[in-house]
Design a protein that fits this description.
This protein has a domain at 9-91: Hect, E3 ligase catalytic domain fold (Alpha-Beta Complex). Helix 6 (168-215) packs antiparallel against helix 7 and helix 8 packs across helix 9. It has eleven helices and nine strands. A three-stranded antiparallel sheet has the order 3-4-5. A two-stranded antiparallel ribbon has the order 1-2. It has a two-stranded antiparallel sheet with strand order 6-9. The protein has 339 residues and is α+β, with helices and mostly antiparallel strands. A hairpin with a 2-residue loop joins strand 3 and strand 4 (133-140). Helices cover 51% and strands 12% of the residues. The chain has helices at 9-21, 26-35, 42-50, 81-91, 150-161, 168-215, 221-250, 252-264, 266-272, 275-285, 323-331; strands at 57-60, 69-72, 123-130, 133-140, 147-149, 164-166, 290-293, 296-299, 310-312.
Length: 339
């Protein structure tokens, strides 16, 4: 049967390319591919990146007296062999790739998220030396003469973030959902771990039974080794699943607290974040690029997921008097906590 790329193929290819670029570490890439819809655990991302099937090779495990080997496959590879080999070198610590020039500047956190209001092209940023020091500007790469001070644009963006803060009732509702989710998640986790633990014991029992049969001369030593290898392989897979489940919720509480802090105060979280986190936060709030017009931030669309729980501060100063209408609207748009 011929292997064909699945729906996750573009995300997997992107993961290999990002590892080879060397900008993000493996855990950062794991989080980003999860955000892109790929369902994969922490340990599984390493297995995925080490799997030669994506470059048109197939791993054949050792069997009896035959050694393990990698053979060419007949399916069309998702990535080329050079890219795969580069990623293996990085994973094994033999090579670490970095961009030839680090273009990321803390003074230009909006670079990559701004477009020219004149031509619609993407704005870049650079430094210019002048009287008194170095000054940073966002500017267009075409002949639009679009150019403005980065410092003032950055201030304008932070002022824009002040317009949004979580509706207090939305936060309370979110807290209730998260408490319920955490409780149900813990129950589900305990159940899954219990089931996997039983399967591990079953495999180990079968190995022990085969060993006893061999000692009683009812089973050949070679047959015992084959049985042992088969069930030990199953045990390794089961233990990997147990590790993934443990890792999945190990830092859940911290993540939930962080998400809540972001919702309550976008501006403060943005100010405290590193450069990469700043750019990710901008992209998550504003899915379409921004324009700066007279140091006012313009955008066509704000992320729809933010709007139900965040509203412009204007109009919410007397929030205690607006409980019924706002919370009623929200409660109709979010599923109950028991789901």
């Amino acid at each position: 049967m011929e292997l064909v790329p699945g729906k996750d193929a573009p995300v997997i290819k992107w993961a290999f390319e990002e590892v080879a670029r060397g900008v993000y570490n493996i855990m950062e890439i794991w989080k980003m591919v999860k955000d892109k819809g790929l369902k994969i655990g922490k340990s599984q991302i390493w297995n995925l990146l080490k799997n030669p099937i994506y470059c048109g090779r197939i791993f054949i495990p050792a069997y009896k007296d035959e050694k393990a080997m990698i053979i060419p496959a007949t399916h069309e590879p998702l990535i080329n062999e050079n890219l795969f080999d580069d990623v293996q070198d990085i994973l094994n610590g033999r090579k670490r790739k970095f961009p030839a020039k680090n273009t990321m500047k803390k003074e230009l956190p909006l670079r990559g998220n701004l477009i020219c209001r004149k031509c619609g092209g993407k704005l870049t940023g650079s430094a210019s030396r002048g009287n008194g020091g170095t000054y940073f500007y966002y500017h267009c790469t075409k002949n639009c003469n679009e150019r403005f001070k980065a410092e003032e644009a950055n201030k304008a963006f932070k002022k824009e973030l002040k317009k949004y803060q979580a509706n207090i009732y939305a936060v309370e509702f979110l807290d209730a959902v998260l408490i319920d989710y955490t409780r149900l998640s813990a129950i589900d986790k305990t159940k899954k771990l219990g089931q996997l633990g039983v399967e591990v014991k079953t495999c180990q029992t079968r190995i022990n039974s085969a060993q006893q049969l061999m000692l009683d001369r009812q089973l050949e030593a070679q047959e015992y080794r084959e049985i042992k290898n088969e069930y030990e392989g199953q045990i390794r897979k089961l233990e990997a699943k147990i590790t993934d489940i443990d890792a999945l919720d190990s830092d859940l509480k911290d993540k939930l607290i962080f998400c809540r802090q972001v919702l309550i105060n976008f501006e403060e979280c943005y100010e405290d974040a590193d450069l990469i986190a700043k750019q990710q936060l901008v992209g998550s709030i504003y899915p379409e690029k921004l324009t700066i017009d007279n140091y006012l931030v313009r955008t066509k669309r704000v992320n729809e997921a933010i709007l139900p729980i965040c509203r412009p501060v204007t109009g919410f100063s007397n929030i205690e008097n607006e409980k019924s209408s706002e919370f009623s609207e929200l409660s109709n748009s979010v599923p109950g906590t028991g789901i």
